[in-house]
Specification:
Two copies of one chain form a homodimer. Chain A is of the alpha/beta class and 240 residues long. Chain A is 28% helix and 21% strand. Chain A contains six helices and ten strands, in the order E-H-E-H-E-H-E-H-E-H-E-E-H-E-E-E. In chain A, the strands form two sheets. In chain A, strands 3-2-4-1-5 form a five-stranded parallel β-sheet, with helices on both faces. A five-stranded mixed β-sheet of chain A has the order 6-7-10-8-9, covered by helices on one side. In chain A, a hairpin with a 7-residue loop joins strand 8 and strand 9. Chain A is elongated, with a radius of gyration of 20 Å.
C-alpha cells in the first residue's frame, strides 16, 4: 500500500493571517493533524490553525507529548514513541499534518520527527512559514539586512558571553536570559537594540532602545541588535 | 486629509501558494499596487501576486524603475523619484501596496522606500513573507538550526574570502560568484553543502553535495553549508 505523506507545516508566528495559502490548504484537505504538546488545545500552533480552519476540532488530532527535561534518554523515548504513532497512520496510507510555530527549519520542535521519518523512508513534505524574527523586524519596520549586510541568528538561552559584534544584524531568539549582560555589551559598544515580546500576539510588547529593555523578559522574546542607528519613528506604526 | 497607508508586502519566494493570507487580503483590498522594475509584468513579485489575484491587471500598477548601476547618485535620484510618486498617492488618502519577493526585511529592494516614507512621516505597514532561505532548507528537508545552533546569512556576492566556519549553518544568498573558492573551502573543512537554483520556481534545480555543485550558478541560487552530516535521502522528496 502507498504510504501516506507526512506534512511538516509552519503556521507562522502569531498573527493567524500570516499563515500561507499552502498551509491552509494542506490542513483543510487532510483528516489527521499532529500537534506538539499533551494539551494540544493550548498549543499556539493549534490556536493559529484553528482561527483559519474552524472545522479543526472535527479532525483527528494527535497530541505529541514531550516532557520539559534535559535527560536525553527520556527525550529520545518520547521522540521514538511520537514518530512511531505517526508512522502507524502513514502505513495505512493516511497523510498526517504536523503543525509547528514559525518556519519548520528554524528551531522547530518537529525536527526530530522529520529526521526519523526520513531515516525510515517515509515521504515528508515541509511547508515553509513566516519566521518570528522576520515578523519582529517588520513590526519594528527595520531591515534585518541590506546590500552586503549579514544576519546572525543565535539562541540567546545558550549564549554565555558576547564578544565581537558581527557585521550587520544580530538576532537573539528566546532572549529571556542573560539580558543584563547583553545590555551592558550593547551600551559599551554604542549599538542599537529593540526587544519584542510575544510578537503578533495580543500581549505583544515592544521595547525601543537598550534603556527601555527590562532585565527580565518572557521566553518568547526576540532582541535585535544593530550597529546602525535606527531610522524608526516609534509613533509611526499603524495598527492593521 | 488622512494620509494613505503604504504597505510593504512580502509575497514569498516563488511558489504562489506560499503567499500569506494577509498579503492576499491587502492586495485584494487596495487599488494601487507598486512593483519594482520598469517592466512590471516581468517582475517575479508581480507574477506571484497575479497567480493569486487574477484581477491584478485591473488595478493601477505603479512600476518603480531602478537602473542596474553602482553609481550612488543615480540610485539615490531614482529612489527619491519613486518615493515621491508613491507619496503623491498617500497624500490623496489612497493606500499603496508595494510588492517584494520573499520577506521585506531580508535584502529587500523596498528598503529605501520604507526608510524614506518613515522619515517623511507616512504610515508604513510591513507584511512578512516566507524567505527564500527557509524555503530552500524546507525543500531540502534539512533544518537551519536546532537546539543551540546558530544561523549565519551572508550575501555571497560580497564575500571575498571564507575563513573560520561558524557554529551551525551558513546560508549564502545570491551565490553566483566565488563558487569555486567556496567549494575549495567546503572540501578542505569536510563540510556538507547543498545548492538550490530558483527555489520554488519551474526551473528549480538542486545540487546535493559539494561535488555536484557547478562552479557557475545563476544569481538566484542559495548555498547552504553545515558541519553536520546530512541525514537526507534525496530520492525522498515527494512532489506536491
Amino acid at each position: 500500500m502507498l504510504k501516506g505523506i507526512a506534512y511538516c507545516v509552519g503556521v507562522g508566528c502569531g498573527d493567524p493571517e500570516l499563515m500561507t495559502l499552502k498551509a491552509l490548504r494542506v490542513i483543510r484537505e487532510n483528516r489527521v493533524i499532529a500537534v506538539v504538546g499533551e494539551n494540544y488545545q493550548n498549543a499556539l500552533a493549534y490556536k493559529i490553525a484553528l482561527q483559519n480552519v474552524p472545522q479543526l476540532p472535527q479532525k483527528e488530532i494527535l497530541a505529541l507529548p514531550m516532557p520539559m527535561t534535559k535527560q536525553t534518554d527520556v527525550i529520545r523515548k518520547y521522540q521514538q514513541q511520537n514518530t512511531c504513532r505517526i508512522e502507524s497512520y502513514l502505513d495505512k496510507g493516511e497523510n498526517v499534518v504536523a503543525l509547528t510555530l514559525g518556519d519548520p527549519s528554524v528551531y522547530s520542535s518537529l525536527h526530530y520527527l522529520r529526521k526519523m521519518l526520513l531515516e525510515h523512508n517515509y515521504p515528508v513534505q515541509t511547508i515553509s512559514g513566516v519566521t518570528s524574527f522576520c515578523e519582529v523586524a517588520n513590526t519594528l519596520n527595520i531591515p534585518l539586512s541590506q546590500w552586503d549586510g549579514e544576519i546572525h541568528i543565535l539562541p540567546a538561552l545558550y549564549q554565555k558571553s558576547f564578544t565581537d559584534f558581527p557585521k550587520g544584524t544580530l538576532v537573539l531568539m528566546k532572549a529571556s536570559e542573560n539580558v543584563a549582560l547583553l545590555k551592558q555589551y550593547i551600551r559599551a559598544n554604542g549599538l542599537s537594540a529593540w526587544a519584542v515580546e510575544h510578537c503578533g500576539m495580543e500581549k505583544q510588547k515592544i521595547h525601543y532602545g537598550v534603556d527601555n529593555i527590562p532585565d527580565k523578559l518572557p521566553y518568547f522574546t526576540i532582541i535585535i541588535v544593530q550597529s546602525e542607528a535606527p531610522f524608526l519613528n516609534p509613533t509611526n506604526l499603524p495598527k492593521d
